Input
Amino acid sequence: MTSESSQVPFDTFPIGPTSIGVYQLGNNGKRPQRTGVLEGETGMTAQQKPPTPIPLGPLARYEQNVIDRITDFNDPRQEWRRLFSEVLGTFFLVLVAAGGGMMSQAFPGMISRTDAVVAPALMVMAIILFMGKISGAHLNPTVSIAFALRRDFPWRRVPGYVVAQLAGATLAALFLRAVINVSAKYGSNYPAHGYSDMAAFWMELILTMGLVSVILGTASGAQNIGIFGAFGVGGYIALAGLWASPISGASMNPARTFGPDLVATTFTGYWIYVAGPIVGAALAVGIAFVLRGPGGGKSGAGAAQGDLFTEAYEAGKS
Output
């Protein structure tokens, strides 16, 4: 026996239950080094290239592009879906809110004040539940402005939302006038007889401050309860209308009052229903900051913009 280690050119070692690997022993007899290819293994040389996919024809490419655009809400071109959602949602809201007053005029004694203020609350609840994930279901310019002030919603998208909300409200008022055949002014909001515009202004301010506080609160951080926030928002609208509607109508929404006023061409005291809700919403944003700090988080952004695509706030951007 010599001092040199035995030289064994090749040996085999099992790698798995069915595979055999080919290895070469080193001069010192230590751990073998693999020199072969596993049985059944296919290698790829530098000259080989992965298979090239078969290109789609023009019609197939067009069909795929249509499908992608429908399903991809991250595509900025899909903003029209959110705007359509706001038009449709505000249409249904004003259909019920203004419809109560107009139906009361057409059929006296059939609809009570309680019916007239609870019906819009139930409609808002239903709208949030069935399409809140699309656009956030603002249905109200002051809500869009509040979310933007809170940095949960991009300012550049506010004008589109406001126009969509005003358009939906106007379409609802036109529909009601055509079907019920009474003036749309009976579906609008005005200060009560014997009460000043300022009294109605303060009422709209405080009611909207409460409404937007509920909306921001149920959409922020650990308190975010998703679409179940609909019950909090709807409940507040009903409660506010039950006790405060005799003075101002408890509009809390410039779009809700704008539609019937435009169709009736009667803007008496309309400034109340713009200034009061906007100031109230701004105060609600301040209250939210005191209670929960700054906004701009993922949770609030998801509630404000719809969960299909969200843009969390970044410093220096709006």
About this structure: The chain has ten helices and three strands.
